[in-house]
């Protein structure tokens, strides 16, 4: 039976794996075309972080407009992308930090601080995008912010959770490193006659 709690050195890879999951979700958000989509048929609108597309009934093709032509589009893409790049750096640092036998806990706390910076940048991008998109782009039909936008928020939520764990991990340094001896509870038969 394998017991793996917070204070388990074998489980040190859980935090880097969660960061890796956040990186994967960030890649999906950056590459996905589902930031905004038509809610129901006819599907005439779709958008990514980079462009907005409308279905043309005459040519039966998507007509796309780059969001990089707008200042808010560049700001949303830049803030989310900067957060993503710092996230990839934090993931690499976490793998390095947990690979060495002598874990540097101040280094781990620094990764946690950087993850809060990642969350701030990603939240800025995720808030700028819908607010300004609705103001600047004329939408057709009923639309919703869809799956790729959701992956962006999911990545941000995982980053915030990991940031708290990375910042708090040094408080359990002895438990993680296994420096605490186990406590055994023993009662003698004289003290507990009901056990006989």
From TrEMBL:
Topology of the protein relative to the lipid bilayer: Multi-pass membrane protein
GO biological process: apoptotic process; cell-cell adhesion
Highest taxon above the source species: Eukaryota
Entry-linked Pfam families: PMP22_Claudin (PF00822)
Keywords from the UniProt entry: Apoptosis, Cell adhesion, Cell junction, Cell membrane, Cytoplasm, Membrane, Transmembrane, Transmembrane helix
GO terms under cellular component: cytoplasm; desmosome; plasma membrane
Entries under InterPro entries matching the protein: P53_induced (IPR015664), PMP22/EMP/MP20/Claudin (IPR004031)
Annotated localization: Cell junction, Desmosome; Cell membrane; Cytoplasm
Transmembrane annotation, as ranges: 12-32, 77-98, 110-131, 151-172
Family in the record: Belongs to the TMEM47 family.
Protein's name according to its UniProt entry: p53 apoptosis effector related to PMP-22
């Amino acid at each position: 039976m394998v017991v793996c709690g917070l204070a388990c050195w074998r489980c040190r890879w859980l935090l880097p794996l969660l960061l890796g999951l956040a990186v994967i979700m960030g890649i999906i958000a950056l590459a996905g075309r589902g930031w905004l989509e038509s809610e129901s048929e006819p599907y005439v609108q779709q958008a990514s972080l980079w462009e907005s597309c409308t279905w043309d009934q005459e040519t039966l093709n998507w007509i796309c407009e780059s969001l990089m032509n707008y200042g808010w589009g560049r700001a949303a893409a830049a803030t989310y992308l900067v957060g993503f790049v710092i996230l990839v750096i934090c993931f690499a640092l976490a793998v390095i930090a947990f690979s060495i036998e002598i874990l540097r806990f101040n280094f781990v706390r620094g990764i946690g601080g950087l993850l809060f910076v990642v969350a701030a940048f990603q939240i800025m991008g995720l808030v700028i995008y819908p607010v300004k998109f609705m103001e600047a782009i004329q939408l057709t039909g009923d639309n919703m912010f869809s799956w790729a936008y959701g992956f962006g928020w999911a990545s941000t939520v995982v980053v915030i959770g990991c940031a708290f764990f990375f910042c708090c991990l040094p408080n359990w340094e002895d438990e993680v490193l296994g420096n605490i001896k186990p406590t055994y509870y023993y009662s003698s038969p004289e003290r507990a006659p009901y056990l006989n």
